[in-house]
Amino acid sequence: MKHSVCNCILLLLLSSSSVSATSDAFDIDESTIAGVQSAFAKGTLTSRALVEYYLDQIRTLNPLLHAVVEVNPDALDQADQADREKTAGTAAGGGLHGIPILLKDVIATDDRLNTTAGSLAMVGSAVPRDAAVVRKLRAAGAVVLGKASMSEWHNFRTRNAPSGWSARGGQSLNPYVLLEYVCGSSAGSAIAVAANMVSVSLAAETDGSISCPSASASVVGIKPTVGLTSRAGVIPLSPRMDTVGPICRTVADAVEVLEAIVGYDDERDGDAMKEASRFVPQDGYKQFLKAEGLKGKRVGILRKRFFDFPRDPTKKMAFEAHFATMRQKGATLIDDLEIANMSIILDSRKSGEQAVMLAEFKISLNAYLSELLHSQVRSLQDVIDFNNKHRVEERIDDLGQSTLLAAQETTGLGPVEQRAVANMARLSAEGLERLMKENQLDTVVAPDASATSIFAIGGYPGISVPAGYGERGRPFGIFFGGLRGSEPKLIEIAYGFEQATKARKAPSFLYDGCASTGRVPC
Q1: What are the pLDDT digits (tens) for 150-181?
Q2: What region holds the Amidase domain (predicted)?
Q3: Which member of 18, 86, 104, 163 is catalytic?
Q4: Any catalytic annotation for residue 209?
Q5: pTM of the model
Q6: Residue 446 CB neighbours (<10 A)
């Protein structure tokens, strides 16, 4: 208990000295992209000052949160360049010019940063080029601040590892309740944004890796339609389901980033992205940021299996209040809906999702590793061998690598995997697609990341928005999902909900029950 109290006092001192820091002219904490750009225009803030602030936040908070694995040694130079361009009137159009952005540690950068998926085996590897989304961000004038921590290999190393853990980055923790993990492999991206260690971040999702950390860290995450954003240069898990999207503190900021990174422009993206590029609206996504976005929308509530919270009545009451708010804002709610074959969809073995991911991970990772200019591993088997050789260096003992081993045992997309692919397509057509079409829905809603498998197996989009705080201050979110290409409607709904509820609060940075739970050493 004494050790716990000491750590609590230390953390409170750190949070009071850094998380509440302000400038005389501009309050950086909880600032939005629009607010930062306004301060840039007024001359009360520079990109260099903003980057310096976030670097200081990382130095102060990262030893506690483990949200960042590496900062960019060239970040200040990039900020200086952005400031010079603003002075000269040559700044790139759009809101990201001079804005620091943190990248999940699977998004390749052709610079002095590593790209490792949280694995020690990938440290020192050299990529041939920036990921396509990074190239777009640089063209928009964004400053690459560094790489965010993540669950090692997309949380695909072993079933034994806690969410947010990697051999390279250690265990990341939730800034709201410091004994809690942030679920989903993009944990660091969400934590850093929630704790004001960066303005915005870029993450990736296969099944829940944007939606889940966003909900549990009280931030906004957009999981785009698969193929809407490029995966070229991103360490893959399953090309059939992988998608890259933003994690930010507001819907407007997330939309700003989404607008900058969408669209086909790389031959490595393949036919899937060519097909999805038709969904990008001509005048972009910001036009759908409408405060009245809920008006006239038909919202389906996946009540059964999802909205029962026997251990947290506060959470149940909050969602009922949110439903009442949606009705008040002009939405029509269709309640008590259930997707066909839901028990099968939510079981990755029965749906076929697990079989497909295991086989595609081996194929796509081997292809990615083969293209590196330098690497100490060139195949999944090399990664497994490296982990066996270097177990002593890991931060947590006896985790193993059961999932990597299972993936290595696969032999390509054979008959079993092809049947799994067909089964996922059938479940999607008879499930979400039929439900939405028969009920003429604009979106379906579910709490937190409870329904992510529905959207993973069909490549569907969704947006997670902060919805409140439950037992002991644990954040929770609401997920708005839809059919492929429905981002415009989802943005209207998510923004309308956000503006009507204003549920997000800054993190508390408090330990809760440290001595009694024993889940994480204090």
Answers
A1: 999 999 999 888 999 999 999 999 999 998 89
A2: 50-449
A3: 104
A4: yes
A5: 0.93
A6: 25
